[in-house]
Amino acid sequence: PGAGIALGMSQNGAYITGPSVTNSYAFAPATGTSTIVPMVPGATSLEPRAVNDLGHAVGAAGAAGSIPILFDGTSTYTLQSLLSGSDATQWNMVSGVDNDALGISNNGLITGLAEHTGVLSCFVMIPVPEPAAASLLAIGSGLAGLALRGRRVSQ
Length: 155
Known about the structure:
The protein has about 160 residues and is mainly β. The protein is built from 1 helix and 13 strands; from the N terminus they run ββββββββαβββββ. Strands 9, 10, 11, 12 and 13 form a 5-stranded antiparallel beta sheet that branches. Strands 1-2-3-4 form a 4-stranded antiparallel beta sheet, with no helix packed on it. A 4-stranded antiparallel beta sheet has the order 5-6-7-8, with no helix packed on it. Mean pLDDT is about 80; it is low at about 135-155.
């Protein structure tokens, strides 16, 4: 839509997302319709980077720092607002300059980077069953997300 950049496309090709000159969007090529991704309060920019087959997009909003976001097809949430308990106090997803949500799978796993106790770290977030009940599955610096793959043990 307009002069924009396509940063992400869903696996089934049903959605494309990215920023344009005037708005960020989720575009459905089959119907030719665009959905504007709403800005989060206090943000001055928004850049969705990845989208899944449901049209849910992730990326970052800009303000004083880089703020990872989730667009659920209707509303946009900061990932920080979806955390609770010790996750909410140990993760800083609102003021780090390198924070970003980089991927979202079709089952809703969100991957990205954010500050954990002051150190830029990888995360995998699982909104279960919807964004309001999100939690962080794995935390830590480096390649913590790669360690999440299940392993079968032979007997």
